[in-house]
Specification:
4 helices, alpha+beta
Length: 164
């Protein structure tokens, strides 16, 4: 019984110290995205310490699929900036593409690859592309989400040889 009381006492003493060292969790939304938090009940940008998580951004504004995709990447940039990160700090991307089959998926990814090259010129993030039959935003050809570590882009390095 004494051991249990001693353990509980130590835990109670340590709890305030642990709470003080835990990173702050900040819920953020760039201008125009506030309704996501208040109406749809999700956080567009979540910052926990130096880690930034950006919720899915639908490619929904523009006349062509390429324009819509470029808009989504521009929105990703604005979301990151709201949390103090840059595109260079992105360590992981996930993209979701509306397609009926593998052939259509490959066709739908082509404009994404083009726009991706505009925003990530080197030190590319990890990336997973997934095909799906539908997205929340009707008419969006794709949706993108990302994770970043603030400051990691400043010291990025790639030691991957080019094979002939």
């Amino acid at each position: 019984m004494r051991r249990l009381c001693l353990s509980l006492s130590l835990l109670c003493l340590a709890a305030p110290v642990l709470a003080q060292t835990a990173p702050t969790r900040e819920h953020l939304a760039p201008a125009g995205w506030e309704g996501s938090y208040h109406g749809l009940h999700y956080t567009p940008v979540l910052r926990v310490g130096d880690r930034v998580i950006v919720s899915g951004i639908p490619a929904s504004e523009g006349e062509t699929d390429e324009a819509k995709i470029r808009w989504a990447f521009q929105q990703l940039q604005a979301h990151l900036e709201k949390a103090g990160a840059t595109m260079a700090d992105v360590v992981e991307l996930q993209s979701f593409h509306v397609a009926r089959d593998h052939e259509e998926f490959r066709t739908r990814v082509e404009p994404v690859l083009k726009v991706h090259r505009e925003f990530f010129k080197d030190h590319y993030p990890a990336w997973t592309a997934v095909g799906t039959t539908a997205l929340f935003s009707k008419g969006a050809p794709m949706e993108i989400r990302a994770e970043a570590i603030i400051g990691s882009g400043a010291r990025a390095k790639a030691d991957i040889p080019v094979k002939p």
